[in-house]
Amino acid sequence: MKLYAVADLHLGAAANREALDGVIPRPDDWLLIAGDIGEKREHLELAFETLTPRFRQLVWVPGNHELWTLPQSGALARGHAKYEECVSICQRYGVVTPEDPYPVVDVDGRRVRIAPLALFYDYSFRPADVAFADAVAWARESGIRCADEDRIHTDPYPDMAYWCQARCEATEARLHQACADGLPTVLLNHYPLRDELARLPRVPRFAIWCGTRLTEDWHRRFNAVAMVYGHLHIPTRQLIDGVPCHEVSFGYPKQWQRWASSINDAIRQIRVG
């Protein structure tokens, strides 16, 4: 089998919903979805109804947009309950989530473990001279304020940093146990796992909403042969310590229509050899 990945489908946009129907079927292969399918239950359902018949298996991790609670959407779940609601939708469609055992599969003839992660951000992608309490104000000085500040609730945690730390600690323990056999891993998360991957030339201070330094050595500790992420809307491939790091965003229509003729241009094969 082959392994493919995409992120940031943003099905709230009509052009993206139309593009989704053009995905080429690959019934023998797996598709990793690195978050931000959309904000509503209907967006996840549309994605899974469209894609589950076209791939052998889907693997999903949450993006920030899945965690939004929008009054106009009628959604009542907040924080961790909103995440659990998304997981329950995945379970109905047989989609692998961060709450499931990490699957071990043969990709291009190599046995690897796929580790979907639900890890967030804690404002630690900031300069050393900016205090945690000042991070959002520091970003605001350049005219940037992430919509998450108003649309993500972190119940039952006091703030996103606490939620992020709790997820990292629990996930780290799971990975230690699961990876004891030494198999190579593919680490899948919505946010990049290292600071230097969170580079946005036009909005550099947006980086505080792009991950956590708690994961900066996970690619070495857990024998990664690939890291897959989205969120930045800047499709790239970089090497960190010899590990390929794939940003696989599709993005909003005004973004992808500049470089892609169809959604298939954004669905990238992830090689593990």
Description:
The chain is α/β, with parallel strands linked by helices and 273 residues long. The chain has a single domain (3-269), classed as Purple Acid Phosphatase, chain A, domain 2 (4-Layer Sandwich), CATH 3.60.21. 26% of the residues lie in helices and 19% in strands. The protein has 8 helices and 10 strands. It has helices at residues 14-20, 41-51, 79-93, 135-140, 148-151, 160-178, 218-221, 253-256; strands at 3-6, 26-33, 55-60, 104-107, 110-116, 185-188, 224-229, 236-240, 243-247, 268-269. The strands form 2 sheets. It has a 6-stranded mixed β-sheet. Strands 3-2-1-10 form a 4-stranded mixed β-sheet, with no helix packed on it. The radius of gyration is 17 Å and the shape is globular. 42% of the residues are buried.
List keywords for this structure.
four-stranded mixed beta sheet, 8 helices, 273 residues, alpha/beta, Purple Acid Phosphatase, chain A, domain 2
Question: What is the topological layout?
Answer:
Elements: E1 3-6, H1 14-20, E2 26-33, H2 41-51, E3 55-60, H3 79-93, E4 104-107, E5 110-116, H4 135-140, H5 148-151, H6 160-178, E6 185-188, H7 218-221, E7 224-229, E8 236-240, E9 243-247, H8 253-256, E10 268-269
Parallel strand pairs: 1-2, 2-3, 5-6, 6-7, 7-9
Antiparallel strand pairs: 1-10, 4-5, 8-9
Helix pairs in contact: 2-3
Summarize the model shown:
The chain has 273 residues and is of the alpha/beta class. The chain is built from 8 helices and 10 strands.
